Amino acid sequence: MKRALFILVVLGTLGILGETRAQSPISLEWNGFVNPHYYADSRSVVGGREDMMLFYPKPILRDSLGNDINDGWQANMLAITARLGLRINGPDMLGARTSAYIEGDFTGSTNATINDLRLRHAYIVLRWNRWVVDNLYETPHMLLVGQYWYPMVIHEIMPMTNPLNMGAPFHCYARQPQIRYTYSHGPWEAVAVTCWQLDNMSQGLLNGIPTSSTLFARHSLAPEVNAQLRYHSKHFFFGIAANLKTIQPQVASVATALQHTGLHSSFSWSLFGRYNGPGFTVKAQTLLNNSLYEGCSLGGYLMLADSTFADWHFNTVWLDIERSTGHWRPGLFLGYAKNLDYGNTDFVHCFGRGHELEYLWRVQPRLTYKTLKGLDFTAEAEYTCAGYKDPAGNLRLSLSMVYSF
Questions:
Q1: Beta-strand (E) ranges in 159-298?
Q2: How far apart are the first and last CA of the chain?
Q3: Fold topology of 150-397
Q4: Taking 90 as the threshold, does the pLDDT of residue 113 lie above it?
Q5: Is the pLDDT confidence value at 46 over 70?
Q6: Which of the four pLDDT bands, split at 50, 70 and 90, describes residue 139?
Q7: CA gap 175, 294 in Å, rounded
Q8: Residue 315: its pLDDT value, please?
Q9: 79 neighbors 34 (Cβ within 8 angstroms)
Q10: CA angle, residues 359, 363, 367, in degrees to nearest 5
């Protein structure tokens, strides 16, 4: 906590200095919000950060008397998503406009560090501009280097749901250190990304024990790579993304464990889109998740009896609709995921999320009141049904306030 306060004091001092040095080529812009959030669940769930990030309900598990021990209401309130960000706009260098951004919240990097200051974003942006008619310019080349959204997170179509999961596990939700290049030509954009791991880690065998670690990606020497083609217009945004991840699933760090250097690659793809109509917004996406566990999504891979590896697949679709004008903003999120390899038991180890599910679906209506002055109130109901052998459902009710600045 002392470290967090020290960092905030330093950042505040930088902000004061930035305001007093009017002639400085560097300008600072602060932003953030405070977001107290109350939520109650009708049964125990698979999730993170005190289950504020909900994936799906836990299965039916009966005690010696036949009672389902995962059934029963629970409630909690947290304010850990409080966020502070600083944008730095700098002078032109190397023929490019320069800027940087750093942002943190208090969700911690793991469940064990919840309430600690966590780095969300920290990146540098270089934009090479091309001048066109009447001193107007466009940016055909943009380079982003640092920690930013995981490339399968399409932030332009982020669901507007209120809880921490933001549509996960139907929509990916993670950040990774990366190098991202964007080329724009008219309404079209081509994006290429190479990224590495930190908070969101792959699963594998470390010294023969199943665990999550960055070592599986680091030992492969291959960054995760992603390519996207996008189209922008006044009302439409849509595109396609392809993602390739390569890891070394077995790593040894002690002399008593065997070293295996074999690699496994997983390919995933996505179609996505958004329509901004008169007073409403529609967003949608479909994912083929071959192994997007690191993106807080579904899918994974199997270790077979002959020590080879094979993906198991999820196909995911979701839709988010929201009224986008006025004080009252009703919205609805719908998500469905299908395990394309459900019932496969021919493996030694299973890595990933949701292998025991045949399907997963969610219905999530919400109602937000916006004061249009930075203060919002949201009420939301979220029903998620998990297709175990005996299906289980959870109803989450939540209330929140957001004060943005």
A1: 175-185, 188-195, 202-206, 209-213, 224-232, 236-247, 250-251, 264-277, 280-289
A2: 23
A3: Porin (2.40.160)
A4: no
A5: yes
A6: confident
A7: 9
A8: 95
A9: yes
A10: 160
